[in-house]
Amino acid sequence: MKRLAGNLTVQVIVAITTGVIVGLLAPGFAVTAKLLSGTFIKLINMLIAPIVFLTIVLGIAKMGDMKKVGRVGGKALLYFEIITTLAIIIGVILANVIKPGQGVLPVVDSAIKLPAKIQAADFNWTEFLTHIVPENIFDAFAKGDILQILLFAVLFATGLSKMGSAGVPLLDTFERISQALFNVMKLVMKLAPLGAFGGMVYTIGTYGIQSLLPMAKIMGAIYLTCGLFVFVVLNLICRYYKISLWRYLKFIRSEILIVLGTSSSESVLPSMMQKMERFGCSKSVVGLVIPTGYSFNLDGTSIYLSMALIFLCQVFQVELSISQQLTAIGILMITSKGAAGITGSGFIVLSSTLAALKIMPVENVAILLGVDRFMSEARAITNLIGNGIASVVVANSEGEFDYNKYSNLFSGMHDVHVISQSKKLEPANELV
After folding, report:
1. How far is CA 286 from CA 9, 70, 351, in A?
2. Contact 228, 90 (CB under 8 A)
3. How far apart are CA 185 and CA 169, in angstroms?
4. 23 in Cβ contact with 204 (< 8 Å)
5. Domain boundaries, the chain
6. Closest Cα to residue 196, out of 20, 48, 342?
7. pLDDT tens digits, 256-280
8. Which of 180, 184, 149, 169 has the alpha carbon at shortest distance from 61?
9. CA-CA distance, 385 to 297, in Å (whole number)?
10. Under 8 Å between Cβ of 261 and 373
11. Closest by alpha carbon to 368, among 327, 316, 431, 426?
12. Taking Cα atoms as reference points, which of 252, 216, 219 lies closest to residue 234?
């Protein structure tokens, strides 16, 4: 019983359940509860930039071959584009079949105002690409801009690898700093139940379950589609690589629950990087794939955007031809990558797509504001699961997935069919 009470997964489940009850009975506590959730996420964000930087530098510098770095990055981006495009297409098809907007009255609460930032959203692909290059690397670290940090880390690792044996002392120092940061993360993760509790109290207390009823169909459709994507599409990918999806989900259950409570996949980015190393992926692949995936491999967000677009068209009775829907898919393939990491990015991308299609006023997205928070969990969890599997795919393509490590992790089970002859990887520090 004592061991069960000390289990992080159990603690988070209890925290989420308690948060729902407190949110219903004491909605006035929502503002205070938001401080708990926000503080926990800030503690995690504090660690993300240095951990991502050190993981990438250590992985690439030890890899040594810069051609390999480019190959891994190229494979990752190709996989991201294929899988997110598939997610968009599935979302569009199921939205047309389920018709979640049919029968919903197109009435937006006059008290809900669409922020000016979202009304004026106009995604610029050139700006996005040039933004990846930081003017000041210290500013990138201060703001926690993952893509800018990733670029600098790759360049720094390249320079470090060219130093040869002279760079070994610095690598050893980085290794020790990385271990210290992961130890700090273990301490911070002990506060995860408080963060999940605060996030759930805030969501329920602020929006109330009663606000869900008019929009239950679109919410149900998105949760159903995300579930089908995970248990059909991603499951087929896992089976192809002789990996058990159920084992994988069980292995990252704590991270899934924390994301459920906080509605933020970034809250588990550092722990996911470490978990995927323990799962069998090499440090170099994890260091490149996971951080990049947080901007480019947003399966859940892609599903949400495509279904939300069709939902709005159904609510406001806008008929989209096949060619218009194909155009929308093409636009979402680009814009769904561009606003990653920006608060309210779902609305920014959605409004950009509506503006490009010129099919309805951008302000119509305001009808989704009241329930967006309740759908963000489905998006974030699907994104999280998809990024972990992307690491497995890319690691396998490079022959850097250690099936022995994977098998030993689940030594009590006996359905591993293939034991790879891949080189054994250095053992990662375990995350409690």
Report:
1. 24, 14, 33
2. yes
3. 24
4. yes
5. 2-409
6. 20
7. 999 888 877 778 888 999 999 999 9
8. 169
9. 10
10. no
11. 316
12. 252
Please name which of 374, 367, 371 lies closest in space to residue 316, comparing C-alpha atoms: 367
Model's pTM, two decimal places?
Answer: 0.78
Q: 199 is written with which tokens?
A: 């996030």
Long-range contacts of 185-189 (CB under 8 A, 24+ apart): 185/44, 185/47, 185/51, 185/270, 185/271, 185/274, 185/431, 186/431, 186/432, 188/40, 188/43, 188/44, 188/47, 189/8, 189/271, 189/431, 189/432
Dihedral, 422, 426, 427, 431 alpha carbons, nearest 10: -110
**pLDDT of the residue at 121:** 42
pLDDT tens per residue, range 282-297? 988 998 899 888 878 8
The SS3 assignment for 157 reads: helix
Regions of the chain short of the pLDDT cut 70? 1-6, 63-66, 106-129, 210-214, 334-348, 352, 370, 412-432
Question: To 10 degrees, the CA torsion angle through 134, 138, 141, 142?
Answer: -110
List, in order, residues 6 or more apart from 180 with CB less than 8 Å away: none
* CATH code at 2-409: 1.10.3860.10
Q: Which two tokens stand for residue 229?
A: 């994507």
